[in-house]
Amino acid sequence: xxxxxxxxxxxxxxxxxxxxxxxxxxxxxxxxxxxxxxxxxxxxxxxxxxxxxxxxxxxxxxxxxxxxxxxxxxxxxxxxxxxxxxxxxxxxxxxxxxxxxxxxxxxxxxxxxxxxxxxxxxxxxxxxxxxxxxxxxxxxxxxxxxxxxxxxxxxxxxxxxxxxxxxxxxxxxxxxxxxxxxxxxxxxxxxxxxxxxxxxxxxxxxxxxxxxxxxxxxxxxxxxxxxxxxxxxxxxxxxxxxxxxxxxxxxxxxxxxxxxxxxxxxxxxxxxxxxxxxxxxxxxxxxxxxxxxxxxxxxxxxxxxxxxxxxxxxxxxxxxxxxxxxxxxxxxxxxxxxxxxxxxxxxxxxxxxxxxxxxxxxxxxxxxxxxxxxxxxxxxxxxxxxxxxxxxxxxxxxxxxxxxxxxxxxxxxxxxxxxxxxxxxxxxxxxxxxxxxxxxxxxxxxxxxxxxxxxxxxxxxxxxxxxxxxxxxxxxxxxxxxxxxxxxxxxxxxxxxxxxxxxxxxxxxxxxxxxxxxxxxxxxxxxxxxxxxxxxxxxxxxxxxxxxxxxxxxxxxxxxxxxxxxxxxxxxxxxxxxxxxxxxxxxxxxxxxxxxxxxxxxxxxxxxxxxxxxxxxxxxxxxxxxxxxxxxxxxxxxxxxxxxxxxxxxxxxxxxxxxxxxxxxxxxxxxxxxxxxxxxxxxxxxxxxxxxxxxxxxxxxxxxxxxxxxxxxxxxxxxxxxxxxxxxxxxxxxxxxxxxxxxxxxxxxxxxxxxxxxxxxxxxxxxxxxxxxxxxxxxxxxxxxxxxxxxxxxxxxxxxxxxxxxxxxxxxxxxxxxxxxxxxxxxxxxxxxxxxxxxxxxxxxxxxxxxxxxxxxxxxxxxxxxxxxxxxxxxxxxxxxxxxxxxxxxxxxxxxxxxxxxxxxxxxxxxxxxxxxxxxxxxxxxx
Length: 927
Description:
six-stranded antiparallel beta sheet, hydrolase, glycosidase, 22% helix, metal-binding, Alpha-mannosidase, globular, 32% strand, 927 residues, alpha+beta, 48 strands, Glyco_hydro/deAcase_b/a-brl
């Protein structure tokens, strides 16, 4: 007799919170689903359990409308019949930041623990590709498995040994991250709906199970067969117990169980004893397929969403959290409640059908509102923290400049010392309306404030070159904690200058003052001779001729067509033909790009441009390049016919229309005096439909592979696709940057929210970054027009080019690319003594190939948590010196659990080995 098999039937519904219907339309269906589930669980003990799709937001969404059912819901969770967590939402891992993925897991665990036990299931049912560090994240969260539906190609019993890194002989496999972390991978080889709508009727059930059992046996490595009873927004199958009894009747040799994931995992692990499985390593991007179904071009659908997301993530994790820590250490508050709210609001935009931009227009309109809500909350957190910090900074050194001295602070919340151009607005004088002066007198006094003769100085009294813009009479108000709002009139100015060597996770103090005379007296319009000499030593201009920008590291020359060369002086390498725009048709959809067959791409190479210098200061200079470019107005009429007929996008025959429109492009190249890179900002006035716009950066370096920033990883990818790849496009995901390097030289292209790139097979290893993609339908399983996905009107794109010697990590290019993501934060202060020095850093660290990721406060213990990750496979040593009042140091993980206590060396120096590609978190218990 053959060994009895067990069929694990797991009830679930994959709940895309919003997708082909707006959120509230899906929300209504969710309420109906959970109502039915609670009734069924209470009335039918044979209906054993249900899996809440791995995301706790389902509970929030349900109780928002059905608060009266809270006790019923909690009872079923605590009795082990509804399984919840471990995520807050099911995110797209490639389009969300590393820390956003961590916060997602933290919030999911936090919320699940309120109701019952957290499901330790690494659940990625429909994620559009999986990042390489997920096994390490799962292990650090106490999760030893990963369930997923995309990224690996199952080969079945006829291929007992996998012949490459991205195929598996079975649906069960070992998935190994770049650091060596391993989890048991369960591939939904027959999708996460392979047990959907199990028939009760005998004849239907006979046909159903004959097919389904055969499909599952084809890929299963053990006698434990998995059947997922549910699908996208699937209503509950309330008669499943009856259907299981019918299955048992038809197949007595199979043990049919209404199961759950923990029981299934335990059974599989027991059955695997002594068995070997295929091991897949690193990223799972469906790279060993024909390339038509990867869904990678969701990285460029509705680019504006990705840009809003980048802005919001950076504001929360890289600005609000670290500033709140510094504020807490000096008398302020750490607003856990507000941060949780801001994060949750942001994370609600991170599901794969949301952040990917592949839903109907109504969904994405609501996303913009959520992005704004989260961002404005983060702004409020930053404002509160800055107020606490400025109140604690010692600015008493500026008292010698008299009552008119206006101190200000520049904060650097990145993990590295930073130099760059900053802008701050100051109130040169205020007149509160509470003083009772007539409004015209208020205005007269503010207009009479004398601004001439002032200079900007640093904490040592050294003058700093500065541009001053008089913003004139303005209105402002205070919102005190203990009284009504306090409006005032003010004279506002804007200062722009280079902030040099601002410490990591710290600040530097400046002041706008009237210079002191030799005897210490205020002398308007003059400065000490030594100071004037220092100012005179600053280079007068970075502009050399009408089309050249140059500093000590870089030389940029703009050609007549707007393309430019970039010389990296330390290496002598010159990059040519940079900044060319490429335009092609796109007859695909929000999921996938499809260029019309036979189309030759259009470019701006040879198209004359208007070129002008628009900024010329000692600390920064800018050149503007303007194009007016005639391109096809849209696809031809055949495209809509094919869309309505549901023609599979690779098989479409549509071409671009003969009619044209003007695509107006304005490109600004900006070079800072101390900059190691060239900023490129593109302003796009898009009047065309059904097209893609990219910017090209030929590297002209011999390299078979390149490196790209991903989740806690600098992943290496081949420039050539796999042999089975048929899609002419080989676009891929990036987070902050992509780097092509040859022998001792390379080019890093960083971005703000531009997550799609391609290394062209053009003999030059050109880095092509997608700036805009315009399409008119959602795609997938039907015809869903999405006119707003054409992204008509004003669009922008931000890039930073970082040529370097050596590799991107040791050269500092990677660190500069990470800093590019983070806005400076500046604020006006007052003259007073304080506990924070004029130049301050909360944490000093060094670590070779380590990259800093976050600084935040733990909610339960109030400890400071710091996180780094190793960008390379080679181990390094992390050395940490803290200005924090540390009582103890300890290792932690992404869930912020206390681990092994660490012993600092000497006074406050901590040394910690960091393995290759390791993510490490250090906790600091405060005194």
